[in-house]
């Protein structure tokens, strides 16, 4: 039996940061400047939260960092690989190998069982699942007895746990979360955040999470605060109260 | 509510476009059929010869069966000649004309037939002198015909014949050729060949007149019509004024129009089924797309009734907009269909279609009703759920298919199979029509049972799938299993196209083959002689043909219409049939497949009857049948023979003796000729035909004037099949595109977890392939049962007649539609960045 640490991210380019954005600008058709020269580096094993008022550019920042959206200017690299100028298929392949996603609305495939949903990214990549790793993940997220169920038969929290397991199954360099607790009640949200925290500390995963919930952001190692498409400040291990105050000030500006 | 409905609709353009297209096509078809049906009741042939008559008295040219639609009688029924004098005495009548029309053709100096009369139809070109009173301001040069050897000609005919008053001209009148003295030339818009009234009565009316035309004093028309009714009504005669005079003028055109309600009736069933299917299917997709919106409305406080009303309002608004172009299209369609019917010889070219707003109103009401009901049904499930449940369910799309619905579906398919036994019981067109209907019913059954069937098939497939199969295949199978409703919707519509095409087309071709087999194997003659220029065969022709070396046998065959009245299950029935008029000599040129009795006994009031009809109507040789002849005369006739080739010759053939005096011309229409098969005989007959005026010699099988042969309805059916199939395919394509467009969210989610665009496309292609295979398989299966039964009944073999390429062709079309309707929207969906698609959805 291998230890949990041995299941960490694939050993490619260990020295490179998980995600690096340099001077990234995103201008939408019509002239809306969603990102205005943002530079961010997320080191391996970090738990980063992105906060900001609505329209501050936090979602766009995540989409660009994850290779879902192409920036108008600047450069993005994931796990040391520069993704600028890659076509959709190449970017998908890169995402599949090195990026995991957790969405607010889970986005599990309703017609597949929980087990099939979790291993789907491996199937898409044409890789055989590593059964030990899958079993470990399922145990960690607490879905051991539910593998044969359909997503519709699970509670919201359970569906999000399955989505987290799916995001981790390829052992990605970074997991992005887009309001991962947005659809959950307080207790379940706390459990899911605890799970994410645990994955970072216990398995050495890198997690980047967009949220507007100060309590959620307070679980992160580092919080990036966005406003008007710019990175306003970087807070290390802030408290929820501190964060709530910061956001309220920003929103009233 | 409507405002809200339209605002919601704006975001579901693809699905609503499908609804609009379905409604547009449905409106066009229903309007078109409505125009045909209405024309069948209200169209009048144009008034030409009788334009100057104010009131016309004639015999009834319709037969009114108990509790049924009136049947037109194509053969002229005549009225007593004395009536003219009686009506002339009525106050207000300024002139009364006892009008007769009979075959007459003028020959020129070289013995060639001149186009005669105003209608150009030689069968009604001859008239009595008093009919000149119907001409518009005739300029008569010369004197009225004074004796049996005198005629008057119109200016055009006289000039073509090169004669002037006092000259000699050869006329073939009522089959008799003679030389007449031209007593007058008449300059008028109309024309014809005018004899003395006495001669005309002998030649045409046999002592009676066709009709009495009255001219009245100014303003006296209505009072005269009233008085005339008092005189003529008790005698069973009909008084016509205005546009109705056109029907009296040409009873064959009037009878021809009665084909329209029959045709409309037979089309209405299948058209309504197809239109309802397409409209209902597209609405189900459209409402399904808005299920989440509707559920949210429930959550914010809309009552279930309000939600259903909203869904219905939206559907009605969209279909209402589609009616605007759909209804004019329907009138256009009716026009084309009318043209086609004239082309096929089923409708007289002189009969115009009636275009009134009535069919449009009927189509609009019918369609909006279908739309409302479909929308209501589609929204029922969502609207009835508890509000919170509705939102929750809107997220987890797959649900277990209802077993009750599936049971109803299987029941319907079983019923359709039972129904398709009909062609085994009755070898008639009506029997064959059941085949296609059974096919369509079975598809509707498939529509109900579809989700369960698809679930079983994809479930079995999923279990047999090897573990290491590629991701797109695994996803495709899982989707087909998880979204059984959506997949079943696609499968059912495509299977509908397969069943519709196979059963309809192969029914027609099988019927065609069986009919032409009947006619071909029945015809022992090689030639047929007709007289298109004379309006009927000259009376001395048969002897001349028989005298031609090499001719073995001849017999005249004429086609008329009879109405067979009988009792079935205690109900009085009356069916109108086209029937051949045969002589005892018929068996020398025709082999009708006589089972019992003898065609040689066809003398006096006798008939021969098809075996199927005889069995169903319970008659046998020696028994009697009640018929109404083509002019409305009721007769009792003894059955002298039972024959088996009823498909080619109709259910009843009547003796010439029985028909005498009950046809318009009183002349034979064609002569079937059997020779020794030598070229010399053929040359002899050709020489005979060209040496005498107005004759035409043709091959016996497929006679040009259609004495009998392939019924034109078959061609009409095939043409209509093509148009309906186009509509069906368009509806299917729209529906499939709409349902693929809705999968954008699902596609985006897959892309985010690492599916490349290529993998998504390949997943969709596999789903399309699966849908295609299941649709073709079930479609073929549902068609096979009725078609095997049909072929067994009609061709005495288990497989139907028809082109071999039909199945591959429809398979290719179905595959093309399935792939294109999934590929194109998928490619479009893939162009939107997945993150954007997710937030938008």
Give a brief rundown of this model.
The complex is a heterodimer of chains A (253) and B (841). Chain A has 253 residues and is of the alpha/beta class.
What does it look like?
The complex is a heterodimer of chains A (253) and B (841). Chain A is of the alpha/beta class and 253 residues long. The model of chain A is unreliable at 1-9 (pLDDT under 50). Chain A has a 6-stranded mixed beta sheet. In chain A, strands 2-1-4-5 form a 4-stranded antiparallel beta sheet, with helices on one face. Chain A has helices at residues 58-65, 88-98, 114-125, 131-141, 156-168, 186-203, 214-217, 240-252; strands spanning 19-28, 32-42, 47-51, 73-78, 81-82, 99-103, 174-178, 207-210, 222-227, 230-236. Helices cover 36% and strands 24% of the residues of chain A. With 841 residues, chain B is α+β, with helices and mostly antiparallel strands. In chain B, 54% of the residues lie in helices and 17% in strands. Chain B contains 28 helices and 25 strands. In chain B, strands 6, 7, 8, 9, 10, 11 and 12 form a 7-stranded mixed beta sheet that branches. In chain B, strands 17-18-23-20-22-21 form a 6-stranded mixed β-barrel. Chain B starts with a helix and ends with a helix. The model of chain B is unreliable at 394-398 and 703-708 (pLDDT under 50). Classes of the chains: A alpha/beta (253), B alpha+beta (841). The interface between A and B is medium-sized, with 31 and 33 residues.
